[in-house]
Specification:
Elements lengths: L1 E4 L25 H5 L20 H12 L18 E7 L3 H17 L4 E3 L7 E6 L1 H7 L3 E7 L4 H7 L16 E6 L4 H16 L24 H10 L10 H15 L16 H11 L5 H18 L4 H14 L4 H18 L5 H15 L3 H17 L3 H17 L3 H19 L2 H12 L9
Parallel strand pairs: 2-3, 2-4, 4-6
Antiparallel strand pairs: 1-5, 5-6
Helix pairs in contact: 2-8, 3-6, 9-10, 10-11, 11-12, 12-13, 13-14, 13-15, 14-15, 15-16, 15-17, 16-17
């Protein structure tokens, strides 16, 4: 099976109040926010992703490494995919928002990846997406947020077939039927993020690669929705020149012609070869950010990950992510060290992934520190620079947090009318990103606690 796990959540979770001094919880500015119902949920309008701008030779290598291994590192003997058309059925306790997000994703797959995929409401489907309770997912897989399994169509069927050969991805020679399990009792963004990652792996490559800074096929979770790179990979995956049962050598022989046809500009772009990601670094990151372990052990693993990245001479986003992991783990324990590693991560992301969501996510944390340090002008500069990326990459958690931070920074500067407008703008996005009303109000209080004007000592 393939899973989106709870082990690496730092790219989307914001623990902003951890960097502020202890104080009584501040009231939410504007009594109406606390006392009345919140505005309707906002959602993103699906838009085509910008095409990838990488060299085809790099993309071919990534395609092969994504397609012929599992996340565990286990090799896959042959390529497997569905015969088109692919049908998708949504079952369980689904919501109107999830149904809309699925419709948007399927439309993007048809338009951008040129895959013949459509939703059905009756009969047997190629892919069944079942919305179930989080507790049921955890009973099946304790550390999974969502997951996908071949040759079953329900969670009950998976429980009966667990451990059987038919649920082993490496034993497949083609894809006939599979199921994706999503939690219905979480935020709309969590459901959508699971939907994008699990459906992409259900129909396409099965591996994740930390070296990719422009893809959802990466366990760092910075990208929440399918990118232009991902759509090109999926389009190539279903190219007529490839077929079920082809070996890595056979696929490698045909990829250059496929990519030249699908992405002609990639033939002339400079190669940006990145070294393999060592198992030692992956293990260190997963132990640092995983679901278990003490604070001291987590810090030790994160420090080791940074040391490995530096020793390997990496100057890409894996180095930045190592700093970012340390920054998050120090947050709430040692503000100075946390801020130091955030700044180091920002410098590395600015060089290695300037066009992605990474720098903006780090800048959100730096803005929180600036506000807490009574530098609302600095915070506002960082926030304004980060808002476009939050919207472009469809991250409602970040977008809502930035707007809440903007509101508090404006309030600290005495610009109350603008502060109220930013706060109101944040709420619809917060309902998509954080989910229930109590979570939205808790986030408002958390961000408000960063504003020195709201602290009581």
């Amino acid at each position: 099976m393939l899973t989106r796990t709870t082990r690496i959540v730092l790219a989307t979770s914001l623990l902003l109040a951890a960097c502020s001094p202890a104080s009584a919880p501040p009231p939410i500015a504007g009594a109406t926010v606390a006392e009345t119902s919140l505005p309707p949920v906002k959602s993103f309008r699906a838009a085509a992703a910008a095409p990838t701008e990488r060299a085809n030779s790099d993309i071919a290598r990534d395609f092969l490494d994504l397609s012929f291994a599992l996340e565990s590192g286990r090799n896959l003997p042959v390529l497997t995919r569905f015969d088109e058309p692919i049908t998708v059925k949504l079952t369980g306790r689904n919501t109107p928002i999830l149904r809309n997000d699925l419709a948007q994703l399927l439309a993007r797959l048809r338009t951008e990846a040129k895959i013949d995929i459509r939703q059905v409401s009756e009969g047997r489907a190629s892919i069944t997406i079942e919305a179930v309770a989080k507790r049921d997912i955890r009973r099946a897989l304790p550390h999974a947020a969502c997951f996908v399994v071949p040759n079953v169509s329900s969670l009950a069927e998976y429980r009966r077939a667990r451990g059987a050969a038919r649920t082993d991805w490496a034993a497949l020679r083609s894809r006939e039927q599979l199921a994706i399990f999503l939690p219905y009792d979480t935020s709309p963004q969590d459901m959508r993020d699971c939907l994008h990652e699990e459906l992409a792996q259900a129909i396409g490559p099965l591996n994740d690669l930390y070296r990719l800074d422009d893809s959802v096929f990466n366990d760092d979770n910075f990208h929440a929705v399918l990118t232009g790179f991902d759509m090109l990979i999926l389009r190539a995956y279903y190219d007529p020149m490839l077929a079920n049962g082809m070996t890595r050598t056979q696929v490698a022989a045909r990829l250059p012609a496929i990519l030249s046809r699908l992405n002609p500009g990639g033939d002339a772009r400079p190669v940006r070869l990145r070294g393999e990601t060592s198992r030692a670094w992956i293990d260190a990151i997963q132990n640092a950010l995983g679901p278990s372990g003490t604070g001291g052990k987590r810090l030790s693993h994160a420090t080791r990950a940074l040391s490995i990245a530096q020793t390997a001479g990496w100057n890409d986003h894996r180095l930045a992510f190592s700093h970012y992991a340390l920054a998050r783990l120090y947050q709430g324990q040692d503000g100075a060290r946390s801020n130091h590693h955030y700044r180091a991560a920002a410098r590395a992301f600015e060089t290695s992934a300037p066009a992605g969501p990474h720098l903006a996510i780090v800048s959100t944390q730096l803005a929180a520190y600036a506000l807490s340090d009574n530098k609302p002008g600095d915070a506002l500069t960082l926030i304004e620079a980060s808002l476009p990326a939050a919207y472009e990459y469809e991250n409602a958690v970040q977008l809502a947090s930035l707007l809440m931070l903007k509101s508090e920074a404006l309030s600290a500067l005495g610009r109350e009318t603008e502060a109220d407008a930013a706060r109101l703008d944040s709420l619809g996005w917060a309902r998509y990103g954080f989910g229930p009303d109590w979570a939205v109000r808790a986030k408002l209080r958390e961000v408000a606690s960063l504003n020195p004007k709201n602290r009581s000592f």
